[in-house]
Structures are given as structure tokens and as C-alpha cells.
Design a protein that fits this description.
- This protein is mostly helical.
- Helix 3 runs parallel beside helix 6 and helix 16 packs antiparallel against helix 20.
- The termini are far apart.
- InterPro entries: MFS, MFS_dom, MFS_Na/Anion_cotransporter, MFS_trans_sf, Sugar_P_transporter.
- It is a multi-pass membrane protein.
Length: 439
């Protein structure tokens, strides 16, 4: 039988898998942004200062970053399905409970919100390493850039879809209601995850042609069956190898730097639109959707363009680094907002900057390309730990900068400078991109 005939008969289950991962990741990011949308009303009702708000916004990332290595190790030990589904359910419960802040006698609202956002971060830790494992299992190398870009672009689509919804909920039903709505939606997503996500070798809908196509292209089709339950992949000596490798250290620094832009967007950006630009919370919710939509489009184009370059050049280094350079140069335009007065032009420039950030968001594709086969979850966990240290630093630093200056100008320069640091990390430190073999 000809190759063309086999290809025609191939099932396309992997596309449904990445679509479902995209939806779950959109909910994941919406849950992170709940307090950003509710923050202005909550701060007014609860009497929160900008510095207190900054600490509350950062609480998620403290736990999220610290739990990345344990989360990745759990994925490698017990498999993606059980750990990831449980994580969705747990973080959704903690999201729901944030709506009760200020109602419990003897517990301050600040302490309760910080603690619950900390617990949300703890529970979400396995999510992106889990996404990377799913992509490594379900996609050949030639499609991995696009697949990774799709789930990573959920961070933008999330605000396109959920920022207006959450803004409407806050406007019409109060800031507490947004936590109840998003917590309930997450619990439904956990049930759906258990129903639909399987390794390729266990999925009831895949046929042999698609399975062979994925495996022959480098897909790890039995990843959970190969590693889960062995308990011998995680050793501190292996972690040391991941931390001592120059290529990976450059990738880690690049992800930290690019996530400064991410965390500005999902924490302070709606508050910036309200306090600095004079929008009301409903207008801010819709205004935040425009840069998010451009970031989503840029993310998909960046992944597709990266895979196109890989097919044309055969070089992972060229394919992954070229979109990153173009995207980060565009993202530095965020600094221009310091000098712009018109609200519509600020939103336009932010949209261009986040379009560039989307194009450059190929870190998870790189992780799928370079992770040792035995440590796909752990490598993703270490990568995400470094990347999400930005979630600790960014909200707090911006809180202090805003409190000290009374404006967001220095905060925007702080964010833009990290776009240039991303370029330095990938082009000076990383070197050639290739899969790491454990010693």
C-alpha cells in the first residue's frame, strides 16, 4: 500500500488531544487571573494597599515555582493522567474558596487570599510539565512546535475568552462571584480530563497508522507505561545534570525573562488599565482581551513558522531561535506606552507587544526537543520553576515601583528590559539546540 493511502487512512486523534489540552490550559490561566480582574473591587472593599495587592498577586507563583520539581517528578513516577486530573480538581476547589475571603473571623482577608492563591499555585504545578509530556507522547518532532505553541497560546486565549466574562461577572454580581464561577468550571474540566486523556498506545480512538506515524517521528507513544511506576528516574544527581547544562541554563533564563511579560499581563495589566488609564472594570476586561487575542495569534503563527523552518532547514536551532528573536524585538515596544497618552493607542501597542511575545513563546517546544527521555516531566518542572520565579518577582517589584512613583512608567521599562534579556539568553548562552543525554 502506498504511503499516501496509509496517510489518508490515518486517524487524527492527536489534534483532538491538543485541542482539549488547550481548553484545560485556558481554564488554568483564567484561574490565575481571577484576582487581577477582581482586584480593584476587592482592594476597595477589603482596604488593600498596592503593596498588599502585589504580595497577593505573587502568592500563586511562590508555590507554583517551588512545586515544579516535585510536580514533574510525580508526573514521571505516576503518569500524566492521574496527577494532572487530580491537580485540576484541587486547584479549582482553592479557587472557589477565595470568594469567602474576609468572612472568617480571626483570619485577615490578606492572609486568606495569600494562602489560597499559594495553594492554587501548589496544585497547578504539574500542569505545564504535564502538557509537555502529552505533546512529547502524542506528536512527532515535526509537529511539536505547533502543538506546544497551541497549548502555550492558551494563556492569551484565556483572557480573550475569560477576561470579558470575569469582568461582566464582577460588574454584575460582585468580585466574589468570579471565584465561584471559575472554581465550578474547573471541577467539570477535571472530570472531562479523566474521560478523554490517555497515552497514544491506550487511546481507544487511535488506529495503527497514526500510532506508527507518531512513533516513527520521535513521539514517545508509551511514555507513561515506560516510566510510570519505576521510581528510578528521579535522583538528585539527575537534577544536578539538568542544572549544570549550559544549554538548559540559557533556556531557563530565557523562560524567566519572557515570563516577566506574562506575569505583568496576568496580574497588573487590568489594574494598570483601571488606575493609570481610567477605564472601569468592565472596560478593562474587554480592553485586556485585545492584546490577549494578538498574543494568541502570534503564538500559533510562531509555532507553525518554527515547524516550517524545521522542515526547510532541518535545524532545530534555526527553527526555534528565529521566531524568538523577531517576537522579542516586537515585545520591547511595551516601553513605548510610557510616552503614549491615548488609551486606544496604548491598547494597540500592547497588542503588538503581546503578538511578538506570542511569536517568541517556543520554550515548551524547546523543552520537548531537549529533555532526556527518562526525565520529560522533571525537565519540564525545572524549566517551569525558573520561568515562574518571574511570577514571584514581577508582581512584587511592580507593586513597589507603583507605590514609590505613583505611576506604571518604571514598571513598563522593567518589563521591556526583560525582553532584551530573553534574546541574550538564547543567542549568547543556549548554543545549539539538541536532546540532552543523561550521563
Amino acid at each position: 500500500m502506498s504511503i499516501a493511502a496509509i496517510a489518508e487512512r490515518r486517524t487524527q486523534v492527536r489534534y483532538f488531544i491538543i485541542f482539549f489540552v488547550f481548553i484545560v490550559t485556558s481554564i488554568n490561566y483564567a484561574d490565575r487571573a481571577t484576582f487581577s480582574i477582581a482586584g480593584s473591587d476587592a482592594a476597595r472593599e477589603l482596604g488593600l494597599s498596592p503593596i498588599a495587592t502585589g504580595y497577593i498577586l505573587s502568592a500563586f507563583a511562590w508555590a507554583y515555582a517551588l512545586a515544579q520539581i516535585p510536580g514533574g517528578a510525580l508526573l514521571d513516577r505516576f503518569g500524566t493522567k492521574r496527577i494532572y486530573a487530580g491537580a485540576i480538581a484541587v486547584w479549582s476547589v482553592f479557587t472557589f474558596l477565595q470568594g469567602f475571603a474576609g468572612f472568617i473571623a480571626g483570619l485577615s482577608a490578606v492572609s486568606m487570599l495569600f494562602a489560597l492563591r499559594f495553594l492554587v499555585g501548589l496544585a497547578e504545578a504539574p500542569s505545564f510539565p504535564g502538557n509537555a509530556r502529552i505533546v512529547a507522547a502524542w506528536f512527532p518532532s515535526s509537529e511539536r512546535g505547533t502543538a506546544s505553541a497551541i497549548f502555550n497560546s492558551a494563556q492569551y486565549f484565556s483572557l480573550v475568552a475569560f477576561a470579558p466574562l470575569m469582568g461582566w461577572v464582577v460588574h454584575n454580581h460582585g468580585w466574589r462571584a468570579v471565584f465561584y464561577v471559575m472554581g465550578g468550571l474547573g471541577l467539570l474540566a477535571a472530570l472531562a480530563f479523566m474521560r478523554f486523556i490517555h497515552d497514544p498506545v491506550r487511546h481507544p480512538g487511535i488506529n495503527q497508522a497514526e500510532l506508527e506515524y507518531i512513533e516513527s517521528g520521535g513521539g514517545l507513544v508509551a511514555l507513561d507505561q515506560t516510566n510510570a511506576g519505576k521510581g528510578n528516574a528521579f535522583r538528585w544527581s539527575n537534577v544536578k545534570q539538568l542544572l549544570a547544562n549550559r544549554m538548559l541554563l540559557g533556556v531557563y533564563l530565557g523562560q524567566y525573562s519572557i515570563n516577566v511579560l506574562t506575569y505583568f499581563f496576568v496580574t497588573w495589566f487590568p489594574i494598570y488599565l483601571v488606575k493609570e488609564r481610567g477605564l472601569n472594570i468592565l472596560e478593562a476586561g474587554f480592553a485586556a482581551a485585545a492584546p490577549a487575542l494578538c498574543g494568541f495569534v502570534g503564538g500559533v503563527l510562531g509555532g507553525y513558522g518554527s515547524d516550517w523552518l524545521l522542515k526547510r532547514t532541518g535545524s532545530l536551532t534555526i527553527a526555534r531561535k528565529t521566531p524568538l528573536l523577531i517576537g522579542m524585538l516586537l515585545a520591547t515596544l511595551i516601553i513605548a506606552c510610557v510616552y503614549i497618552e491615548q488609551e486606544w493607542l496604548v491598547v494597540t501597542v500592547m497588542a503588538i507587544a503581546f503578538f511578538g511575545k506570542g511569536i517568541a513563546s517556543l520554550g515548551w517546544a524547546v523543552v520537548s526537543d531537549v529533555s532526556p527521555r527518562q526525565l520529560a516531566g522533571l525537565t519540564g518542572g525545572v524549566f517551569n520553576m525558573f520561568g515562574n520565579c518571574a511570577g514571584i518577582v514581577t508582581p512584587i517589584v511592580i507593586g513597589y515601583l507603583v507605590a514609590a512613583s505613583g505611576s506604571f512608567d518604571s514598571a513598563l521599562i522593567f518589563v521591556g528590559a526583560h525582553c532584551l534579556l530573553t534574546i541574550f539568553a538564547y543567542f549568547v548562552i543556549v548554543g545549539p539546540i539538541r536532546r540532552l543525554e543523561l550521563q
